[in-house]
Design brief:
The complex is a heterotrimer.
Chain A lengths: L10 H49 L1 E4 L2 E4 L3 H10 L4 E7 L2 E5 L16 E7 L2 E14 L2 E12 L1 H49 L17 H49 L3 H34 L5 E4 H17 L4 E5 L6 E4 L1 H18 L5 E8 L2 E7 L10 H4 L18 H11 L3 E6 L6 E8 L2
Helix pairs in contact in A: 1-2, 1-3, 4-5, 5-9, 6-7, 7-9
Chain B lengths: L1 H4 L6 H6 L6 E5 L6 E7 L3 H14 L3 E7 L2 H9 L7 E4 L2 H9 L9 H4 L6 E2 L3 E14 L12 H10 L1 H4 L3 E4 L5 H13 L2 H11 L3 E3 L2 H10 L4 E6 H10 L3 E4 L5 E10 L6 H12 L5 H7 L6 H6 L3 E3 L5 H4 L3 H16 L2
Parallel strand pairs in B: 2-3, 2-4, 7-8, 7-9, 11-12
Antiparallel strand pairs in B: 1-3, 4-11, 5-6, 6-9, 6-10, 6-11
Chain C lengths: L1 E5 L3 H13 L3 E5 L2 H10 L4 E5 L1 E2 L2 E2 H10 L6 E5 L3 H10 L4 E4 L4 H15 L7 E3 L2 E4 L4 E4 L2 E4 L2 H12 L7 H8 L9 H13 L5 E6 L3 E6 L2
Parallel strand pairs in C: 1-2, 1-3, 3-6, 6-7
Antiparallel strand pairs in C: 4-5, 8-9, 9-10, 10-11, 12-13
Helix pairs in contact in C: 6-8
The chains are: A alpha+beta, B alpha/beta, C alpha/beta.
């Protein structure tokens, strides 16, 4: 069976992609925020240490013999070496004159005040440096002197930290993305699971199961389920109509035919003149022909109809063969034709539609009986090897070299059968049933002399 | 064999080209020259030649120019005169640190430098390749009964108890003259208040001041000195092996460990050879023959972990503090006040 | 045999009744299930012919009730519906056989015979003429204890003669009894079959006698 509708897009994929895109956006945001926060924290740390260093230098300033001197504390610079290996520069300026330190360290653009330290970032001696400047007033011989202490440090350590933080932020972002994507996948899956459950429950149903769906469904699916149920109801009604129509048609056609035939037989009995009797006989044959054709047409309609939704019950072929042979034996007996069933000791079963299989076999056997001369045997042999074979062999006239494949077509009959009632649909029905079950119909000459061998071949289930 | 091929040439060119004062300028030409390496160093030829030759044996195409200068001159050459060298090797850790801090050093990283302990490198620019304890030299005549003081406190006691015996018989660096002496004195002062007390008592006993370890050892051997304080252990060990007559005492309260460091200058023209030499020096511990021949103890982290009294002088901005001109002035004033008792 | 025909189509029923009577059967006709139940209450039937589409109900329910009441009378269902779809249910409900309309009366008779044989019905007995015993149930002809298995058409031909020894049957009558309308045969075929049963009867005290211009009859020697 074909899938019918071609897939265009996927809700799950769209849902997943949208969620994943959101996750990606959030991941990038997380990365940026983490990096910004951490970088500013690292910067604050550096600023803090720089300020502490400058303050300790400022605290070591003292006035001596009318001038300002400085006993640079060891810790002022060594503390800057504790957290990283950055280069350190300092400069102490008293009233615009360098007291000590690096003469060329530029003064801050934003001059510090007593209450406010200033920070600046600039390029110095080949590297970017961060500088803190602290202002102090020291009294020298009664006159106040303005002292400006600047301590600068390169930012390589900071860059290393920020690289490390970036790496961590990247890892966190990727980790978040992966987890969020996995969750998106799960969410998409779980959002669609009611749909899948429904699909499964539709698929699980047998072909004849046309009850409406009464399972609990999410609110979003209620209209869909309602539409589906309404469709099922229409389908059920339509199927019922078709079946009824076939049955009704059969009834309508056959009942009057039966009446006519019975009356014809009665009349035939009452007639004495041979030519009248012959006429009546021909009438009866014509009735038989039309009733048989009608029967096969209706059978064929039924086969076509049921093949569309093949039921998958387990069919005991051995029993079916026996049953069909028993059923057809009385009619065969009228012609002194015997019907012989040959089934293996072990039951042979396959999955399929009992009604169709029976119809196929019955049509083949019926054909065989029809073409069998008296005092012959129609043999129905069932065997199961690599395939299941149901072979019907007769000792009739065979198919007279006709194209056997063409015989499977509708209304095709052998070239040598003009004298026998038949519509030519029997083999068509058998062929269609075989194909509906994944098998085929084989038509061959009977190996033992004349006659035909028609075989239904099915794969082992 | 290689020795036979080597010729030592005093380069006149170098002498005129450089304004700073040099002590020697040696060239070790390669047989077939594929590269050159110029080194400005404070280490003696005797100590360093085995290392240079071994390096050249590994890198036969490299001609080495080895220029020896004092620590102060080496600093001046690089910082002020822009002298063109590939490597600077110096025992003046403070000056080396300042050169690196002020941006004269190139950054270099290799498996060999990564293998050094953290305290033996700074910024991947300054690499220590020797650890040389600073010791007290005691003449065999100083303590006939064998009771040798092993801490600064014990030494102070001894000097207090027997002032006359040691008067004029103690030697130490004149920190005004010797950059290395200044480094040791400042590290002493930073480490312990005892060092000022020791300095004062040494001052009272008319301590004699020297420019270098070699002179102090000479006077110890001649009997002019009984004690020499803050002598570089590696020199002492080399001389003791030759002549004897004194004992080398590592102080048990603490002993400074001087780290001899190498850096690649920013403007180094022979980067490849420089890198090879830095790696070679960083792996000096793997060549006991060279350690023996040069008398320079290689970096050995394990030895320091075993003895907590051994304190390597820490590389880093802390060393810049004592180079501050005001700090130096103050320190020297205090030092003079203590040692000269004026 | 006594039949009960349950069939609502009066025209068809009339023809069937007349046709069965021609073969010497007694037939009661019921056109509704109620009527059928009334008939069963007062008479015993050898066989019931049941149409499944009736005005006052489905033949299936009758069949079900019939089987639940443990009635032994065999039922052959006549159906005008498609064979394949109805078959399973009918046999499951306890029909002995079914036949699709329109039916050939000789086939109906064969099916009745088969059903009765399966059920061992009392209606089929062996018929004895002189020293020949015709056992329809076994399909055998026994002469003086020696049994011969008969072919179907031979049996039917012998049955005609054994049912009325001495009566003359025309060739055309015998043809009607022996062949269905789908068999393309002429009256010469009767001579072949008469020849065969004469050979079967050799050595017996009965024989088939030709009555010139009229047909054949069975005569006993004593």
């Amino acid at each position: 069976m074909s899938a019918g509708a071609a897939a265009k897009g996927s809700i799950r994929r769209r849902l997943f992609l949208q969620l994943a895109a959101i996750a990606a956006l959030l991941s990038v945001l997380l990365f940026l925020v983490m990096r910004a926060v951490a970088a500013s924290a690292a910067e604050d740390t550096q600023d803090g240490i720089l300020a502490a260093s400058a303050t300790s230098i400022a605290d070591a300033l003292r006035s001596e013999e009318g001038s300002i001197t400085l006993d640079l504390p060891y810790s002022a610079l060594s503390m800057l070496g504790t957290i990283n290996e950055d280069r350190v520069f300092y400069r102490v300026v008293v009233n615009g004159e360098t007291l000590t330190g690096y003469d060329d360290l530029p003064p801050p653009e934003d001059a510090p005040t007593l209450s406010r330290n200033t920070f600046s970032t600039f390029e110095y001696r080949g590297d970017e440096v961060r500088m803190v400047s602290v202002a102090r007033v020291v009294s020298t011989g009664g006159a106040p002197s303005n002292v400006q202490i600047s301590v600068a440090q390169t930012r390589l350590g900071l860059q290393a930290i920020s690289q490390r933080i970036s790496a961590i932020a990247t890892a966190a972002g990727i980790g978040f993305f992966v987890v969020a994507t996995a969750l998106s996948l799960w969410a998409a899956q779980s959002a669609l699971s009611p749909l899948e459950r429904m699909t499964a429950s539709v698929t699980r149903r047998g072909p004849g199961d046309l009850r409406p769906f009464e399972t609990e469904t999410p609110a979003e699916l209620v209209p869909f389920v309602a539409a589906l149920n309404s469709f099922i109801a229409r389908l059920r009604a339509s199927l019922q109509r078709s079946e009824d129509l076939i049955a009704e048609a059969a009834h309508r056609v056959r009942t009057p035919l039966a009446t006519v035939r019975a009356k014809a037989e009665v009349t035939h009995r009452k007639l004495n003149k041979p030519e009248h009797r012959q006429t009546m006989r021909e009438m009866i044959r014509a009735i038989d022909e039309s009733s048989r054709s009608a029967g096969q047409l209706l059978d064929h309609a039924m086969v076509t109809f049921r093949s569309d939704s093949l039921s998958e019950e387990v069919v005991d072929l051995s029993e079916m063969v026996q049953d069909t042979c028993d059923r057809l034996s009385p009619a065969a007996g009228l012609k002194d034709v015997s019907v012989l069933a040959r089934v293996p000791d072990l039951p042979v079963t396959m999955k399929g539609d009992w009604v169709l299989l029976q119809s196929a076999l019955q049509n083949i056997v019926d054909n065989a009986i029809k073409y069998s001369p008296e005092d012959t045997t129609v043999e129905v042999a069932l065997s199961a090897g690599e395939t299941i074979r149901l072979a019907v062999t007769d000792a009739g006239r065979g198919f007279g070299g006709a194209d056997v494949e063409a015989l499977k077509g509708r209304f095709a009959r052998g070239r040598n059968v003009d004298d026998i009632v038949g519509s030519g649909l029997g083999l068509t029905i058998a062929d269609e049933v075989a194909r509906a079950h994944g098998g085929r119909l084989e038509i061959a000459a009977n190996r033992n002399g004349g006659g035909a061998c028609v075989t239904l071949v099915f794969p082992l289930s | 064999m290689r020795h036979a091929c080597l010729s030592l040439v005093l380069s006149l060119w170098a002498a005129v080209a450089l304004a700073f004062e040099i002590e020697a300028d040696l060239t070790y030409p390669a047989e077939v020259e594929t590269g050159v390496l110029t080194i400005l160093s404070t280490a003696d030829r005797e100590a360093f030649e085995p290392i240079l030759l071994a390096f050249q044996a590994d890198n036969p195409g490299v001609t080495i120019r080895y220029t020896i200068a004092s620590t102060a001159e080496a600093m001046k050459a690089v910082a002020d005169e822009g002298a063109r060298f590939d490597l600077v090797i110096s025992s003046a850790m403070d000056l080396q640190t300042k050169l690196a801090n002020d941006g004269f050093a190139a950054t270099y990283r290799s498996a060999a430098t990564d293998a050094l302990p953290d305290w033996a490198r700074w910024r991947n620019q300054l690499f220590a390749f020797t650890q040389e304890p600073v010791v007290l030299i005691v003449s065999d005549d100083a303590f006939p009964d064998g009771e040798v003081p092993a801490t600064r406190n014990a030494l102070i006691e001894v000097l207090r108890d027997q002032p006359e015996r040691f008067r004029g018989k103690i030697g130490t660096y004149d920190v005004r003259e010797s950059g290395f002496g200044y480094l040791l004195a400042t590290q002493d002062a930073r480490a312990s208040e005892n060092s000022w007390r020791l300095l004062e008592i040494m001052g009272r006993l008319d301590t004699r001041l020297y420019c270098c370890s070699g002179d102090m050892l000479r006077d110890i051997r001649s009997g002019d000195l009984l004690l020499a304080y803050n002598v570089l252990g590696s020199y002492a060990a080399a001389q003791q092996a030759e002549a004897g007559g004194f004992r080398i005492v590592e102080m048990e309260d603490f002993s400074n460990i001087m780290l001899r460091t190498v850096m690649i200058l920013n403007g180094a023209e022979n980067r490849e050879e420089s890198a090879a030499m830095v790696d070679f020096l960083a792996r000096l511990g793997g060549r006991p023959d060279l350690v023996r021949a040069s008398g320079l103890p290689a970096i050995d982290d394990a030895a320091l972990r075993d003895n907590v009294a051994l304190r390597p002088i820490r590389l880093g901005p802390g060393l810049l503090v004592f180079l501050d001109r005001l700090k130096r002035r103050t320190f020297l004033r205090n030092w003079e006040a203590s040692i000269t008792q004026e | 045999m006594r039949f009960l025909l349950i069939e609502d189509n009066a025209s068809l029923a009339g023809a069937v009744v007349e046709r069965l009577q021609m073969d010497g059967h007694a037939v009661d006709h019921a056109d509704t299930l109620d009527a059928a139940r009334a008939c069963i209450a007062v008479a015993d039937y050898d066989l019931i012919l049941l149409d499944i589409m009736l005005p006052d109900g489905d033949g299936r329910s009758f069949l079900e009730a019939h089987r639940q009441a443990e009635k032994q009378t065999p039922v052959i269902v006549t159906t005008a519906r498609s064979e394949v779809s109805d078959r399973v249910g009918l046999l499951d409900l306890g029909a002995d056989d079914y036949i699709t309309k329109p039916f050939d009366f000789s086939e109906l008779e064969a099916r009745c015979r088969a059903v009765l044989r399966r059920r061992g019905g009392a209606a089929v007995n062996s018929v004895t003429v002189a020293d020949a015993v015709l056992d329809s149930a076994a399909g055998e002809l026994r002469i003086g204890g020696e049994a011969q298995t008969l072919r179907n058409r031979e049996l039917r031909l012998l049955e005609v003669f054994f049912a009325a020894p001495g009566q003359v049957f025309s060739k055309s009558y015998l043809m009607d009894r022996m062949f269905s309308f789908s068999d393309e045969v002429n009256e010469n075929a009767i001579e072949v079959y008469v020849g065969r049963i004469r050979r079967r009867l050799e050595g017996a005290q009965v024989r088939i006698e030709t009555v010139r211009g009229l047909g054949y009859r069975l005569v006993a020697d004593r």
